[in-house]
Design goal:
Blueprint (H helix, E strand, L loop, with lengths): L1 H22 L2 H20 L6 H7 L12 H7 L8 H30 L15 E6 L3 H10 L3 E5 L2 E6 L2 H26 L1 E8 L3 E2 L4 E4 L7 H4 L3 E12 L5 E12 L4 E7 L5 E3 L2 E17 L5 E4 L1 E2 L1 H4 L4 E6 L7 E6 L5 E5 L5 E6 L3 E5 L2 E18 L3 H18 L4 E8 L2 E8 L3 H16 L25 E4 L5
Antiparallel strand pairs: 1-21, 1-22, 2-3, 3-20, 4-6, 4-19, 5-7, 7-8, 8-9, 10-11, 11-12, 11-19, 13-14, 14-15, 15-16, 16-17, 18-19, 20-21
Helix pairs in contact: 1-5, 2-5, 3-4, 5-7, 7-10
Amino acid sequence: MTFFIKPWQGLQNYVKSDLLPFLADLRLAISLFLLIALFSISGTVLEQGEPLSFYQENYPESPALFGFLTWKVIWLLGLNEVYRTGWFLGLLILFGTSLTACTFTRQLPALKAARSWTFYDRPRQFQKLAFSAELQGIDLTTVQQHLSSHGFKLFNQDNSLYGRKGLAGRIGPIVVHGSMLIILAGSIVGSLVGFKAQEMVPDGSTFQIHNIIDAGPWAKTDTDTIQKDWAVHVNRFWIDYSPTGRIDQFYSDLSIINDQGDELARKTIHVNEPLRYGGLTFYQADWSISEIRLRLNNSPIFQIPMASLSQQLGAQLWGTWVPIKPDMSDGISLITKDLQGTLMIYGSDGLPLGTTRVGMATAINDSLTLNILDLVGSTGLQIKSDPGIPLVYLGFGLLMLGVIMSYVSHSQVWVLAAGDRLYFGGRTNRAQVSFERELLAVLADLQAQPQPDASLSPETPSPETPSPETPAVSALDPSSK
């Protein structure tokens, strides 16, 4: 039995004397925080979740960016998905452990000490305080009344008095530590079970999420799990343009519908104004032109897809080819740069034939008239699932509250009545000057108390000798001036 007890006691001693002091060390916490901040910045600067070919093309070995940053370094260290790497999650866990150790070994004991009260029973104890004074002719009850009016919570014991206020200032650091732990927990949850998807959906279409581009190792990304019995319908997509022709804002009117087609929710989204439903957030992220609707002479309406030409021409353009002969041996090309309705027409020889607009009939040749009916846009949606976001929001809310609480000064005062003298002193953990001014105001109020008529005294004291009935400050610590 002793064989098992001694190793266990040795482990306990190691945890208490070595491990906990190491984890609670402020220098360790600051170092971990700076490392987390540094790698978080790298995750913002470096593109995340791209394929290997992307990094090989943009971060070649020669010349290496900054002399060392190549695709091999990025891929080896996992900087392509830094927030999900084991070492980054390990840093978060270690930082959280350090905060927890500091909370239990320092902050909670400090709060426990602040909540308890101690009484001074010897005058020399007041000499150690930042502010102290020696009074005459004032009783303990009068002091108690004045301190109570200044918000101090008071405790009595015989001829001693202890008061405190601002206990929230001691609770604040604990709230800050707890809020940071909640934020870390939310970040870890989001990185493990969250996912990101992108969908390009034509105006008027209904879709469910299929194009998952990034997901945590524990994320459930099958459609039946994500959306179950509902889908998203794009009621309308449109773009507002400025007078100069630049894009001002683009919008998507989205409806959440069930299997029977009933509308469960609806919202018009735009940049920085997403739709949230079923634990998913739908952001307006991009747009495109999906197809064109046109008629040749009196033909039926043709609905022809349009393709992006950005890679070929180096600009944001969309184009399509329209046959103008039944055997498709000849045709024209239509190219546009936006949804404002202007299109450029090119012949089969590549020469421009002019321009046209939506709703306008244009003669291509003597026997053919082109009538553009509509340009159909596609909304680019980014869909995110991050179950850790509520925890992160809660953590940041508590963090702001804890920071505000931490600015509250925790002030303490002691009073001791010894014979005809009364010893008065106090200390605070911050705002020392304001605290001393407050105590000086208390002393001034005490001195302003009405005194007995001197003529009733059997013996009139000399001016150099203060009367026991007359309050006076006989000693004031220089630091309080």
